[in-house]
Amino acid sequence: MEKVKKLLFEAFSIARSEVTRDQAAFFLISNAYVHVSENSLIDHFNSDLLEIAKEMNKHLKTETIQDIRKFYQYRNIDEIREIVYELLSGKHTFDGRSFIESSNNKISELAFNLLGLDDNESIVFDLGSGTGNFLANVYTNAQAKHLNLKGLIGLELNLDQAHISQMALDLLVDDSIKPVVVIGNALDKPGNQYTKGYVFPPFGIRQIIQEKTVKSHLFPDIKLTNRNTTEWFFIDSLLSGLQSNGRAIALVTGRALFNDADKEFRNRLIKEGKLEGIIELPNNVLSFTAIKIYVLVFSGGNTKVKFVDASDAINSDARKFRKFELPVDPIIEFYQNEIVKCINNDKLIDLPNLTPSNILLDTMKPKEGVPLKEITEIITGSQYTLNKFEDICTNDLTGYKILTSGDIEDGAVDWDNLQSIDYKGNKFDKFAIKKHDVIVTSKSSKVKTAVVDIEPKEKILVTGGMLIIRPNIRKIDPTYLKMFLDSEQGQNALKAIGKGITIITINAKDLSNIAVPLISLKKQKMKSEKYNNFLSSLLAYKEQMKKIEIILKNSFLDEGEE
Predict the structure, then answer these.
(1) Closest listed residue to residue 174, CA positions, set 269, 288, 43, 66
(2) What pLDDT, in 10s, does the model give residues 375-395?
(3) What is the CATH T-level fold of the domain 105-359, as seen in this structure?
(4) Model-level pTM?
(5) Which of 254, 369, 373, 462 could disulfide-link 515, Cβ–Cβ 3.0 to 4.6 Å?
(6) 3-state DSSP call for residue 294?
(7) How far is CA 327 from its chain centroid?
(8) Which tens digit of pLDDT belongs to each residue from 419-441?
(9) Is the dihedral of CA 465, 379, 488, 261 positive or negative?
(10) DSSP code of 322?
(11) With the C-alpha atoms ordered 326, 328, 334, 335, is the resulting torsion angle positive or negative?
(12) Domain 369-526 CATH (choose: 3.30.479.10, 3.90.226.10, 1.10.260.40, 3.90.220.20)
């Protein structure tokens, strides 16, 4: 490896003055292709591709071209292949940054193992193959395991990347296989069939289609729109060309697993038995983004789905300094172990969140549990946030105040200091709280709860991102309900219905279905009384601490000093 690093540094030094970061790997690969082709170091070069490789470098100085050709002149074919393979990994550039936003060798290795290639001469297809990293890894790993490949096929829309990947693959492979990179749209139905498929879709695209709707390739009765998460368009295309006995891997963001617009498509995949497993990877496994990604495994005839949460597979110190590699072997071993968590397909239909960290929470229904909707009424707060009321905020007593999530601290609300608003009318009266209501923040990084323990003298309106739970006090005590929601079991239940990674969103319908352990009202009140006593003590201690902090800040001054 050290030898390859030195060779790469030497090669990059030649390119540094004329070639940008994004062009560097293209420059090195295209010139390697020219050198190897013209010197007959491989038998399967393409004359048209050779001309394209030369054309890519016409804008460069003759001296630069001569220097890189001279560099390759002193390298044998194995050294050149090592250089090309490392270039495709995206790890080595002259300024330390990746020249492409693609998967890395470890993710490719994980996907390779999950695909389960055997010696049946698999046809491997990469939808949106970019510069060929995954296909290069498939070939390298297959060679190491002495597996025969029948086909390596990539599909890429970007012309330059398609050409570079074809050059790189031609350089890497021997005469046992002829890789093919097709130039085409990844959203179209593939024109060929394959036994193993892979896709790493672009993340974050919001406007993926021009039409209002398009038919799914896989399920023609389902229509996809721009409300669907981008990743599902690519997965739909990938699976439509997969042979019935095939396997496929897709990388997705968390949104694909909890976006409500995707539920119909997710449900259908599960009902059809096409989804085999979901693996949640740690943060920062991609070099170009910190976003968490998930690996979806597809095959046929599944009655259950496997769930693996590998979020903590990398320790915090390694993550902090970004000196880590994805631990592929332990993840594969756990995924294939009989103790892996499996859930029957019928229990997954319509679940709002399929991320493993949520699925694997201990959300077993509590003993004597009763759905919240049977003992409460749940009201969605006003759609307006504090910003919408800024123009009518006032210090005068008007009969109207507003309650925001920021007003809830330590499970309590300072009712006397809520913001008054100069509001006339009754449009928002339905969002006014009543005594015994339980307030729950529904769009925040941490779910907060509070009990309305006063009889409001004014109309206090709940702003956006909050829910009002109005309990039937003959069946459930408000403080007891808050205690449950704040407990580990309650928090797990809320996480299970929450959508989002950083900001958690909870909707009223899903909240109404969580089960609450309903003990006798007398026992509820006893628990509530004890809880309130402890809460009062906590708030008193915190108030005392604030006073002590003020004294400490001013303790430098002696009495009488100014």
Answers:
(1) 43
(2) 999 998 887 777 778 888 988
(3) Rossmann fold (3.40.50)
(4) 0.73
(5) 369
(6) strand
(7) 18
(8) 998 888 788 888 899 999 999 98
(9) negative
(10) T
(11) positive
(12) 3.90.220.20
